[in-house]
Amino acid sequence: MTERTRVPLHRDPKFRALIIQVLALGLVVYGFYSLFQTTVDNLVARGIQTGTSFFDEVAPFQIGFSPFFDYKLGESTYIDVFFVGIQNTILVAVLGIVAATILGFFIGVIRLSPNWLISRGALAYIEIFRNVPLLLQIMFWNFAIFLPSLPAPKNSIELGAFYLNARGFHTPLPVIENSTGFGIWIALLAILCLGLVVFAKRAKARFEETGQQLPVGLISLATIVGGGYILYLIAGSPLIFDEPVLGRFNFKGGGQLPLPLFSLWFALTLYTAAFIAENVRAGIQSVSHGQNEAAHALGLSRKDTVRLVTIPQALRVIIPPTISQYLNLTKNSSLAVAVGYEELVAVWAGITLNQTGQALVIIGMTVAVYECLSLFTSFVLNWYNKRIQLTER
Amino acid sequence: MNDVKTFVPAPDRAPPSSAVGPIAWVRENLFGSIGSSIATLLFFYLFFSYVPPFVEWALINANWTGADRSVCEANTAGACWTFINVRFEQILFGLYFASNPDEIWRPTLIFILFFALLLPLLFEKTPGKKWLVIGMLGVFPVVFYFIVYGGYFGISQSNTTQWGGFLLTFTLAFVGILLALPIGILLALGRRSEMPVIRSICVVYIEFWRGTPLITILFMASVMLPLFFPAGVEFDKVVRAMIGITMFQSAYTAEAVRGGLAAIPKGQAEAAMALGLGYWRRTVFITLPQALKISIPSIVNTFIALFKDTSLVSIIGLLDLLNMAQTASRSMEWKGYDIEAYLFAGFIYWAFCYGMSRYSQNLERKLDTNRRN
Question: In 3-state terms, what secondary structure has residue B304?
Fold first, then answer.
């Protein structure tokens, strides 16, 4: 009897799965092996010595913009170029993320405005900016608008202490003048914040006991701004503002965003904001109407409904796709190569690759940086998704 | 007896003009509150200070005809569309076809054929859609190869290094989606497989390509691909870009299809299993058709992204629509007309992407069976 019902080996699902997997693995390993062999042969045939020894060679080109690194032509090495590239990528990514979040939330909220004109205006913005290639937008702003129409440094557009001209955007920068005073100021500020935390807890306890509410947010803000300024004076004004001053050719001093960075930042912000605005709209609309009605029935004011009912639920839908947009923005910053901003792809996978010819190492390292960023992002996303799932119960 | 009176109600009075009609609409939608009124006024102010001058520049005062820049220099108050007009064939078909007037029928025929196949597909009730899809995905690429690339039937072989303009953008996007679709489907099936090794291979492949910016992949394709193949195997630049784009796109397509597969109730596969269908018959006849149907909107969305991303090949030196327009605006004859070049190229990209996104939204609404409103 058992003889008959036994499944023949080639029809046993477990056995088949095993065979298929072994075959697939073998194929992949063989593919990589033969790729490796051909590459080695090709490199030998072309006389290219692949390795990391070029890291310590002096890089024969200048990098104009390296705010966090003292880059010197004739002294800095190729590996310094790599780190400057990463720093510049992170800089434009952070600037872009901050600006795109603010603009995106603003556009997303006014997209749902009861005012027909305003909501249509927001819709037009979204549909125009997300349906045109980002590269075209970057080039348009840089080459067609900013470069020809911004004035020379002499006639810069003044916005308070900020200056905009064809060389870039110049801002005042706070510089620590008196480091002990600065330390004292930071310490005093920390104590102030601690006090506010205690105050907020007290206020909450009081609210639960008596039902009386205090405008905690407003009081905290006023204390931080006003108290911060008074403490700043007490600590002896430890900061000075390094303001940009017009030199012979361009502004000197202060913070400077060169024009390519400014155009890139501008275009990335407008483009990504359109996507974030759509996420925000979808998030707000995903909160069902019944939630608002229930909050209303409980006697919550309109402000409290938005603050305590709509926003927490909308954020749950908004945040995950917005984090993906942040990753996209960071990856898209690699388009800087078109306008000459010195980020990772431009200086490392572009100039350094042309100078040294070390394609394998350089492209490998570039890809590795972006893979790390992407892994980090999905790690954050998974963590966030787990967290909001827990609060749901 | 005849005096029975029937009650005839007075006819309804018309609603007050403050409740219906355009005035009420304006009052409710534009001046609903103080904030709203301020916003409306601000909007009008911004609108009238920017839009009419732009329309005047772009349409009313613009130069449309002429053969060189002297026309535009005579009238600087308007845009110089003359430049686009003169370079139109280059921007649309690339250098090869624009410089051989006898060959211009080839790309023209291809575009006509493409739209003739595409338009009926967009309508829901077209009969014989199956054949149109087969024509689009199976026959059209072959015709495209013979007509645009040429080399057979007395049609001269075109030089791919001189391909360019919108034709190149179209080709890269079409090849990308055509090759990425089957690879993406296999990857999506692999990612949902119960065999850990297969699943890991697919996950690593998908996440690797999704984590890297396309520009890095294009650099990789243009400098590293020659190293990966034995000496003697040569690819031209266009094929290298196609390989890079296909790798990249297949990862995104896989994720779109996976979304569709995940949405199919498990009962479908279980019922098929109960009927005695094996894995492939179950997949090909039961789950995959349903999954593909609901993942069409996301596939279209990845395609929109790809269509925009093809502009990146201009960084590795291909003369696609963007680069062709830019090159034209930087030539000696037309220096200084960058705005017109970017606006024209931008408008073409926008028209296609917007059309596709509207189509995909429409489809999504139709396929969404448990919609709320």
Answer: helix
CA distance A353 to A362: 7
10 Å Cβ neighbour count for B167? 24
Q: Which residue has 């400077």 as its token pair? A: A256
Shortest CA gap B150–chain A (Å) = 31
CATH homologous superfamily, domain A78-133+253-392: MetI-like (1.10.3720.10)
Residues in chain B with CB shorter than 8 Å from the CB of A366 are 216, 219
Q: Which of A373, A331, A365 lies closest to A81 in space, CA to CA?
A: A365
Cβ pair A360:B308 closer than 8 A: no
Q: Measure the CA–CA gap between A167 and B32, rounded to whole angstroms.
A: 45
Q: What secondary structure, in 3-state letters, does A170-183 show?
A: EECEEEECCHHHHH
B309 to chain A: which residues are within 8 Å by CB?
133
- Which residues on A lie below 8 Å from B346 (Cβ)? 132-133, 136-137, 140
Q: Do B349 and A131 touch (CB under 8 A)?
A: yes
Q: Which of B33, B191, B216 to mutate to test binding with chain A, by most A CBs within 10 Å of its CB?
A: B216
Determine the distance in angstroms separating the CA of A14 from the nearest CA of chain B, rounded to an integer: 10
Contact A170, A244 (CB under 8 A): yes
**Nearest-CB residue to B32 (from A115, A143, A370):** A115
Chain A environment of B354 (Cβ under 8 Å)? 127, 131
Interface test with A, best of B279, B315, B368 (most A CBs within 10 A): B315
Q: For B34, which residue in chain A has the nearest alpha carbon? A: A115
In this predicted complex, what is the ipTM?
Answer: 0.85
* pLDDT tens sequence for chain B (373 residues): 567 888 888 888 887 777 777 778 887 777 878 888 888 888 889 888 888 888 888 777 777 777 777 777 777 777 778 777 777 878 888 777 777 777 778 888 888 888 888 888 777 777 777 788 887 888 888 877 877 777 777 677 777 777 888 888 998 998 988 899 899 999 999 888 888 888 888 888 988 888 888 988 888 888 888 778 777 777 788 888 888 899 999 999 998 898 888 888 888 888 988 998 888 888 888 888 888 888 888 888 888 989 999 998 888 888 888 888 888 888 777 777 888 888 888 999 999 999 888 888 888 787 765 544 4
pTM: 0.85
Smallest CA-to-CA distance from A134 within A275, A259, A257 is with A275
- Scanning every residue of chain B, which has its alpha carbon at the shortest distance from the alpha carbon of A25? B197
How far is it, in rounded angstroms, from Cα B106 to Cα B151? 13
Q: Is there a contact between A136 and B346 if contact means CB atoms under 8 Å apart?
A: yes
**Residue A37 CB neighbour total at 10 angstroms:** 11
Q: Where are the domains of chain A?
A: 2-45, 78-133+253-392
Q: Do A370 and B211 touch (CB under 8 A)?
A: yes
Q: In Å, how far is B261's CA from the nearest CA of chain A?
A: 21
| Phi, psi for residue B317 in degrees, rounded to 5 | 95, 10
Q: Which of B25, B223, B240 is the best residue to mutate to test the A interface, defined by the most A CB atoms within 10 Å of its own CB? A: B223
